[in-house]
Amino acid sequence: MTQKAKTYMLPVAMATGSLAGYLLPDLTARWATLLAPILIFAMLLVTYCKISPNDLHIKPLHGWLLAVQIIGGLTIFGALYFWDPIIAEGTFICLFCPTATAAPVITGMLGGNVPTLISYSLISNMAVAILSPIIFSFMGIHADISFFDAFLTICSKVLPLLILPLGVAILLRQCLPKIHTVLNKRQSLSFYMWAVSLFLVVGKAVTFIIGQGREAIPLEIAIALLSLIVCIGQFYIGRKLGGRYGDKISGAQGLGQKNTVLAIWLALTYLSPITSIGPASYIIWQNSINSYQLYLKEKQTMKGS
Description:
The chain is mainly α.
């Protein structure tokens, strides 16, 4: 598939997912609940198969990006909590969720440092896997059960989803190198699985939004607008931080391009479901930015040739 076709594939997935969520809400929600975790696992597995131990280098840039992701997310949550806890959650998840599994693909298309981005993707996902049970439990998401029970519940679902793919990738490298090589050479699979995941989770989010009624519209608009501000801010800050280390593209994509599929799943599962408006809107904002960047890159390439 050409780069231009990939540029349009994500908006098409979002549009058709929205239509499916509107026309077939029950069926779309059912399939999203069933397939989204499987697709997230598969995307991470394919991405991790590309990682070579020799390529994994923790850099100062990674520390700055992670600080914005985690500390920045908690700071924004605290600042917005006394205005509205739901708005705080919806904005927080847009910062806290890890780098998209397809980010290395987009980074490569834009001419960035792919190994740097893959290393940060791993760091980012592991940080979320370890911290999300603690953070979500302290947020009081499961107010009807104890902190310890909530912590164990979240651990049992989030940790295997994010960490097990790394273990499987390592196992394949050591025991089944042929399968590992096939997955390593098929990195585009993560992009296509991402498109399918977008279709499903956007459809599920639309199904939920429709069910909220008109009284929730002002809240939904506030969350969507804040996700736009957060999206632009993360791309900008990531680009500035990356510029300090000679890698603006990896910095921008590492911080700005989020695993919105995972974010929506986390929001619908552990936060107030209406907070899924944040990452659902973020899908539109980040892919608009990515599409524009790819357009500029293609234009630049054509001028150079």
